[in-house]
Design goal:
By secondary structure, this protein is an alpha/beta fold. It has one domain: Decaprenyl diphosphate synthase-like (Undecaprenyl pyrophosphate synthetase). The protein is built from ten helices and six strands. It has a six-stranded parallel sheet with strand order 3-4-2-1-5-6, with helices on both faces. β3 (120-124), α6 (132-145) and β4 (152-159) form a beta-alpha-beta unit. The radius of gyration is 21 Å and the shape is globular. The structure holds farnesyl diphosphate (FPP). The site of farnesyl diphosphate has 19 residues, from α3, α4, β2 and α5. Farnesyl diphosphate (FPP) binds at residues 39-44, 57, 60-61, 64, 81, 83, 88, 99, 102-103, 106, 155, 235.
């Protein structure tokens, strides 16, 4: 069953390893189409080693590399990573600069690997406040990968779920005020078309590392029906086997989207008919 997946990981997974054991448990026909990740715990990872927070972010960038590559090998169509929230500007200037530097470095160094792995790069969030040296690299990576047909890697930068929702409301309100639209006819689709994530399916699986049970202003509209998986693993320690564990757990969940299981449904109907 997982033979195709095993083949994709042929040269990167040792036979008899835990990674192989986990990979074998993944059903390739039930992979999540969109995985979103809140990468958390870089600071704690560093402080446990008596290192500066920036060292945690650097180690976090290595986890990004490993995760993106694993997702591409698995054939996950969409992977979205929360790299920098609008609230993160409140961090010390040196930490913000280091994060931007890591992103630039990632885009410069990984562009080749993104191309080789057929990965398409894009971002969500407000680019205006980002330094031009960062936006230039983003634009370059976007252009260089735009015709790729494999995993779409979306990095959330200067992103806020609430402000994305407000912006969509403003646009729709302006259209109504201009008389071009009847508010009563606004649909979810009209709304989604005005979000940064236009064109992306909603995440099936939202992963958060480092054990925190929060969504932290990430994809607030889009995660309405996502399965949430929280792992104690700190982001810098996250590797392909942690991604496999999350997917295995996801595949055990029963997704009902607010409905009832078919079996329950029929028993309820039968009960009502009595
Ligand atoms: C949260 O950990 C992590 C971030 C705010 C930044 C994530 C950035 C990276 C993983 C590196 C660069 C990204 C790319 C895409 C190359 P935290 O600092 O809040 O950790 P803490 O809660 O333990 O303090």
């Amino acid at each position: 069953m997982s033979n195709n997946l095993l083949k994709e990981f042929e040269n990167v997974i040792a036979s008899g390893s835990k990674d192989e054991f986990l990979l074998r448990q993944i059903d390739p026909d039930k992979l999540p189409a969109h995985i979103a990740i809140i990468m958390d715990g870089n600071g704690r990872w560093a402080s446990r080693r008596n290192q500066p927070r920036v060292a945690g972010h650097r180690a976090g960038a290595a986890a990004v590399r490993a995760t993106v590559e694993a997702a591409a090998r698995l054939g996950i169509p969409y992977l979205t990573l929360y790299a920098f929230s609008t609230e993160n500007w409140k961090r010390p200037r040196l930490e913000v600069e280091a994060l931007m530097g890591l992103l630039r470095e990632f885009l410069r160094k990984e562009i080749r690997s993104l191309k080789e792995n057929n990965i398409r790069f894009r971002t969500i969030g407000r680019e205006q406040r980002l330094e031009s040296t960062v936006t230039r690299e983003i634009e370059h990576a976007r252009r260089e990968t735009e015709s790729n047909t494999g995993t779409v890697l979306t990095v959330a930068l200067n992103y806020s779920g609430r402000s994305e929702i407000i912006q969509a409301c403003r646009e729709l309100a302006a259209e109504c005020a201009a008389g071009g639209r009847d508010p009563a006819e606004i649909t979810e689709y009209d709304f989604e078309r005005r979000l940064f994530t236009e064109g992306l399916p909603d995440p099936d699986l939202l992963i958060r590392t480092s054990g925190e049970m929060r969504v932290s202003n990430f994809l607030l509209w889009q995660i309405a029906y996502s399965e949430i998986y929280v792992t104690e693993t700190l982001w810098p320690d996250f590797r392909q086997l942690n991604l496999f564990e999350a997917i295995i757990e996801f595949q055990k969940r029963e997704r009902r989207y607010g409905a009832v299981k078919p079996a329950h449904k029929s028993s309820l109907v039968a009960a009502n008919m009595k």
